[in-house]
Amino acid sequence: MIHVVLCDDHAVLRRGICDTLAEAVDIRVTGEAGNYTELRELLRSAPCQVLLLDIDMPGRNGLEVLASVRESHPHIRVLMVSMYPEDQYALRCIKAGAEGYANKSGDPLALVEAVRTVASGRKYLTQEVAQMLAQSLAHPIDQAPHASLSEREMQTLQKIATGKRLTDIAQELMLSPKTVSVYRARVLEKLQLTNNAELTVYAIRNNLV
């Protein structure tokens, strides 16, 4: 039996994933968490071989949680799940130590396959992700400017590009507006842009939103 813990801040999506996994006779969801605090407490008692971890959560984002879990529970294999297209986050997740990346809007059977693959000790890579990984290894210097952004900077870029104000972003990420403003300044500098309009255009052209 594969013991799975699910961490996602959207209860409806959690329920959908749980229902999907429940149809597999060899998979059992042993716990659910809506944020890192709940997850940290849950992992103290719930058996877990595979952690399904959402990327976009309030407070500490998925990749930050991934780093913490890798350090505190190195035996747990982490499968990142997200609504974002693979070309936005899949490579970042794999390079950060995740065992795989699955899209929540994809084929439910693919998610079951992903859990089984990860639980067996293998990496779960779709053909698209495998191709992107091969290209990144073959051409490591041929990267878009946003590849240098940290996870917080990427979040700030994406949220600005969707029209959100700094105060709104700060509230969603549980940060101070001043801190978000610093992230915005770093993004502008790294991408060599000057204002939010240019950030939005950049994000759209690079399929980041």
From TrEMBL:
Residues 3-119 form the Response regulatory domain. One of its GO terms (biological process) is phosphorelay signal transduction system. InterPro entries: CheY-like_superfamily (IPR011006), NreC/VraR/RcsB-like_REC (IPR058245), Sig_transdc_resp-reg_C-effctor (IPR016032), Sig_transdc_resp-reg_receiver (IPR001789), Tscrpt_reg_LuxR_C (IPR000792), WalR-like (IPR039420). One of its GO terms (molecular function) is DNA binding. Signal peptide: none annotated. The modification 4-aspartylphosphate is found at D54. Keywords: DNA-binding, Phosphoprotein, Transcription, Transcription regulation. It comes from the Bacteria. Residues 142-207 form the HTH luxR-type domain. Pfam families: GerE, Response_reg. This is Response regulator transcription factor. It comes from Comamonas denitrificans. The lineage of its organism: Bacteria, Pseudomonadati, Pseudomonadota, Betaproteobacteria, Burkholderiales.
